[in-house]
Amino acid sequence: MVLLLKEARQHSDIALVEECQKGDPEAFDELVRRHKERVYNVVYRFLGHREDALDVCQEVFVRAYQSITAFRGGSQVYTWLHSIAANLAKNRIRDRKRKGRNMGTSLEALAEAAPGVAQMAERTNEAGPESIAMTRELEEVLQRCLGELPEHYRLTFVLRTIDDLSYEEIASVMNCPVGTVRSRLNQARRILRDRLTELKVM
Questions:
Q1: Which of 76, 106, 141, 142 is most buried, by the most CB atoms less than 10 A from its CB?
Q2: CA quadruple 87, 92, 95, 96: dihedral sign
Q3: How many other CB atoms sit within 10 Å of the CB of residue 84?
Q4: Are 142 and 193 in contact (CB under 8 A)?
Q5: Nearest Cα residue to 161 out of 188, 200, 123, 125
Q6: In sequence order, which residues have a C-beta less than 8 Å from that of residue 54 and are 6 or more positions away?
Q7: Mind listing the pLDDT tens digit for each residue in 48-105?
Q8: Torsion of CA 117, 157, 162, 83, to 10 degrees
Q9: Alpha-carbon gap, residue 119 to 106, rounded angstroms
Q10: What span, in angstroms and rounded, lies between the C-alpha atoms of 64 and 71?
Q11: What is the Cα–Cα distance from 21 to 83, expressed in whole angstroms?
């Protein structure tokens, strides 16, 4: 088993998928090991809730395993996984809305849209109850701002800012033209900057 795992780690993602399609469970375990952290980070930044992110991340790989035989290599494996993650995360948000739960994301996710936020977070991240309380208050404001974005703007922003996907990869995940990705990202940044300025966060 150890030898097989070592060999799997030397394989490309596509080779591992092919092994999965032949019925090798260890190959799929290796795919999970390679991609689970990256998928989790994107889902967490999008949802802003660790338990929901863990649930969705687990479901991503369940869905991937169930549909592995249908994967034909038309895209990168991690792009395919992100497509599954994006759909499941959007479904989770719709469930939240129906149940009246809050949405949000972590403070770091907005640093690109609001550079001043990152500096403020660093200042308030020092030890001490007042600093901790200030950081939490700031994060709540930012969570609210990102939660106000339309889902397609929000997902574009998270995929680009958090996971550093290229415009082409985001277009593949979201099934839209590259020009649409650029437009959505610019709109998301503008809306966030305007909203944070309005709230005097920046």
A1: 142
A2: negative
A3: 19
A4: no
A5: 188
A6: 40
A7: 788 889 999 999 999 999 999 988 877 889 999 999 999 999 888 877 666 555 444 4
A8: 160
A9: 15
A10: 9
A11: 20
| Residue 54 identity (one-letter amino acid) | L
Run of H or E including 125: none
Query: pTM score, two decimals?
Result: 0.67
Residue pLDDT, tens place only, 90-124:
888 877 666 555 444 444 455 555 544 545 445 54
**What is the average pLDDT across 175-194?**
92
pLDDT for the residue numbered 97: 64
Residues 6+ apart with CB under 8 A from 106: 44, 45, 48, 139, 143
Q: Which residue has the higher pLDDT, 202 or 106?
A: 202
Between CA 140 and CA 190 the distance in angstroms is 20
